[in-house]
Amino acid sequence: MDINFLKTLGLSETNCGTTSGKKSYASDNWLESYSPVDGLLIGKVSVTSKESYDQISATATHAYSSWRLVPAPKRGEIVRQFGEKLRKYKEPLGKLVSYEMGKSLQEGYGEVQEMIDICDFAVGLSRQLYGLTMHSERSGHRMYEQWHPLGVVGIISAFNFPVAVWAWNSALSWVCGNVCIWKPSEKTPLCGIACQNIWNEVAQENNLEDGICSLINGDYTVGEYLTTDTKIPLISATGSSRMGKIVGSTVAARFGRSLLELGGNNAIIITESADLDAVLIGAVFGAVGTCGQRCTSTRRLIIHESIFNQVKEKLTKAYKQLRIGNPLDPSNHVGPLIDRTAVELYQKSIKQAIEQGGTVVVAGDVLSGDSYTSGCYVTPCIIEAQNHFPIVQHETFAPILYIMKYTDLHSAIKMQNDVPQGLSSAIMTNNLRDAETFLSVEGSDCGIANVNIGTSGAEIGGAFGGEKETGGGRESGSDAWKAYMRRQTNTI
Ligand code: UN1
User: Fold this and answer.
1) Residue 461 DSSP code
2) Candidates 100, 114, 261, 469; catalytic one
3) C or N terminus of the chain, fewer CB within 10 Å?
4) How far apart are CA 215 and CA 410, in angstroms?
5) H-type helices in 70-185, by residue range?
C-alpha cells in the first residue's frame, strides 16, 4: 500500500506523543499503532510521563493567561486558518483516519470535512458569544450576563472518530478563549500527532506561544492525569458509559465540570406506513457504517408486525450484497473492526444473544484469507431478539443488528426508550401523527430524534449528545459553546 500520506502529515516510525507545540517531551515508553486494515505496524508514539504531563499542564495554564485576552474574533481568525490547513491536508488526513481506524476512505474524508465545518461554525461564533441583558427591578441599575472562558480544557476522545470529535471540542474551546490538552485514544495515536502537526503550522505562522493546543498520549492512566488535575476546569470525554462514569465522578469530586458523550443503543421504529426504500438506506448505513462502531450506530430495529417479514427479507438481501474488505478501496462497503479484542467481543455478543433466546437471521462470521490478514474483518449480522435481553440492553461496538416486532406505536416507543442509553433514535413513517407522537414529550427520550433518516450521520450544526447513560453532554453546534464558558451576571 502507498503510505506516502504518513510523510505528508509529518509522521515517522517513532513520534513524540507529548508536546505543547514547539516543545516536546520524550519518553522511552511506546504505544504501537497497528492498522486494522492490514495488521501492519504504522508507527510508534511515546507515552506521556507524569513529569512531562505536569510541564504540559503548566505551559497550558500560562498560555491561557494571554490567549484569553486575544479578542474573540481574532481567535476566530486563527481557527479560520486552521480550517484552511485542514482543507489542504484533507486527503492525507482522511487516508490516515481510514488506515489507522479502519473506516471507509469516504468516511475518513467525511470526518475531516466535519472538522472543516466546525472551524467555519466556530469562526462565525467568535463574533456571536452573546449574553442576555435584562431589566433590573431597581431603578438606575443595569443588569446583564457575559460569558468568560473557563481556562484549560481537557479533551479525551475515542478511536471511532479519531479526529472530528477533538475538532468539535477544540475549535469551540479556542474561540471561547480556552486552551486545550488532548488525549486521543491509545488505539489511534497517529491521528493525534497529525492534527497537532497541522496546528503547529498555524501556530508558527502566527507566532503563537506554546500551550494553546497540547497533546498527551497513553492509556487511561494518562487520562487520569487530566481528570484529577485541579487546574483543569472542564473535561470533555467521549467513550463508553463505563469510562464516563469514572471520569464524571472523578471530575465532580474536585468540583470540575465534565461534558460526557458516551454510549448509545440507538433504535429505528419502522411503522406500517414507512417508505421501505428509505428504511433500507437508513437502517443499513446506520448498522454497518463504520463497521457498527459509531456511538450513533443503529443497534435495534423495532418493526411493525404487519411488515416484519417483508423488512427482514429486504434487509437480508441487502446484507448479502455487502462487500467487506479494505476500507481504502471505494468498492467495499464495510471495513474491519478496530482490533482483535473488538472481534472477540463481537463473537461473544452473538453467542450471548443466541443463549438469551435470539434467532440468527444473517450470520456473523470472522473472515480469514489473504484480504483479511489483520484478523479484524467480520460480517455484519442480524439477530431476531427481544428488547429486554441483557445483551440487547448493552452497547456492543460491532455490526450486530437486533430486530424485533411491535403491535402499537406506544409500545414501540416504550421499547425504544427502555434501554439505559439515550443518544439517537429515529422513526420511519409516512404518518404525520406517528411522527409527531415520536417527537412529543411522550416520544423518544433521546438527545437526537429523527424522522425518515437513520440514527447516525448527525450534522455539526446541531447540538450533539444524549441523555441517561449517554452522559447528558452536548457538543458541536447550536449553543453547545456555553459548556466551554462560565456565565457571569453583572449588575451595575
Ligand atoms: C460518535 O460516534 O462518537 O452522527 C460520533 C454521527 C457522527 C458523529 C458520531 N456525526 O454519526
Assistant:
1) T
2) 261
3) C
4) 48
5) 72-88, 90-101, 105-125, 164-176
Q: Supply the pLDDT for residue 1.
A: 76
CA distance 459 to 465: 12
Q: Are strands 41-46 and 30-34 parallel, antiparallel or unpaired?
A: antiparallel
CA distance 48 to 55: 11
Find out whether the beta carbon of 101 lies less than 6 Å from any atom of ligand 1: no
User: The whole model's pTM is what?
Assistant: 0.97
In terms of C-beta density within 10 A (0-12 exposed, 13-18 middle, 19 or more buried), how is residue 100 classed? Answer: buried
**Would you say 96 and 194 are in contact if contact means Cβ atoms under 8 Å apart?**
yes
Assess contact for 460 and 125: CB atoms under 8 A.
no
Under 8 Å between Cβ of 378 and 335: no
Question: In Å, what is the CA distance from 417 to each residue of 233, 410, 425?
Answer: 33, 11, 9
CA distance 158 to 240: 9
Q: What gap in Å lies between CA 81 and CA 85, rounded to an integer?
A: 6
d(CA 485, CA 480): 10
Q: What is the separation of C-alpha 330 from the centre of its chain, rounded to a whole number of angstroms?
A: 23
Is 295 one of the annotated active-site residues of the chain?
yes
Residues of the chain with pLDDT under 50: none
pLDDT of residue 282: 95
Which residue carries 453547545 as its cell? 480
Q: How far is the CA of 339 from the centre of ligand 1 (A)?
A: 20
Catalytic residue at 261?
yes
C-alpha cell recorded at residue 360: 440468527
Q: Is the CB of 458 under 6 A from ligand 1?
A: yes
- Residue-level pLDDT at 2: 84
CA distances from 346 to 129, 350, 401 (A): 44, 6, 11
Write out the H or E segment, with its range, that includes residue 6.
helix 4-8
**CA proximity to 447, closest of 462, 470, 467:** 467
User: In 159-220, at which residue ranges do the beta strands (DSSP E only) sit?
Assistant: 179-183, 213-215
User: CA–CA separation, 212 vs 20, rounded Å?
Assistant: 7
| Distance of alpha carbon 5 from alpha carbon 63, whole angstroms | 31
Provide φ and ψ at 266, rounded to 5°: -85, 135
DSSP string over 281-301: HHHHHHHHGGGG-STT-EEEE
d(CA 33, CA 3): 14
Q: Report the pLDDT value the prediction gives residue 230, as an integer from 0 to 100.
A: 98
